[in-house]
């Protein structure tokens, strides 16, 4: 929903400007008019302006695919700065060990935590999909989970490891309060409403904090760790994209840098390059 709201706001901003300039059709959208829009389009931050510009370029790209404007017209809308790229944060061995130790907690809340963590660490599910999971989404006879991804609306069907199935079964049968709620993970106080993604994040921080592990990646670090582990195990990008429920494999490039062993096979030789200048 937030993505759609951002797209709508960005494109409306651009279309209102065109209307004010008397542009009533796509033939009037020229590089000159786009540059005029860019100059007068003020934002409080450069990042904000870039975010809006990215959506508007997507709109121009769409018009280009419909042959309503030149396909290169989007290039007239420049970026204020290059996008920042950083290596993603995954869970290290000490953090994973601390999380696995949590599965030994046989209290109702401990079993709930173990079930949520296993879905993130062993299956790469997003926190929003974990909290929205319903009892009917678990197909026990087929050892799989079937649900619609909350972020994309795309259906996904995944087999679950025996370990995950055991954690879910233990929580549902031994730790979960007796309630008519259709959701798997619920609060343990009346009226037993489903938990929120905030609880997922706080539970992870609590476990790692007790173990003395620093962490700032949130529940999504489970998903990043899961994808990175699949990559290091030799799985192809297409397979990883399918397991994560991505519509394409273009968004998985950030995980490549986590495969240090294979990254070391890709350095470029500096032989023959003359180094100039003094010391830093």
In short:
The protein has helices at 2-20, 31-40, 46-65, 93-102, 108-123, 127-131, 162-175, 197-210, 220-232, 237-244, 253-256, 260-263; strands at residues 138-139, 144-148, 155-159.
What does this structure look like?
It is a single chain. This protein is mostly helical and 280 residues long. It is built from twelve helices and three strands, in the order ααααααβββαααααα. The protein has helices at residues 2-20, 31-40, 46-65, 93-102, 108-123, 127-131, 162-175, 197-210, 220-232, 237-244, 253-256, 260-263, and strands at residues 138-139, 144-148, 155-159. A hairpin with a 4-residue loop joins β1 (138-139) and β2. The protein has a three-stranded antiparallel beta sheet with strand order 1-2-3, with no helix packed on it. The protein starts with a helix and ends in a 17-residue tail after the last helix.
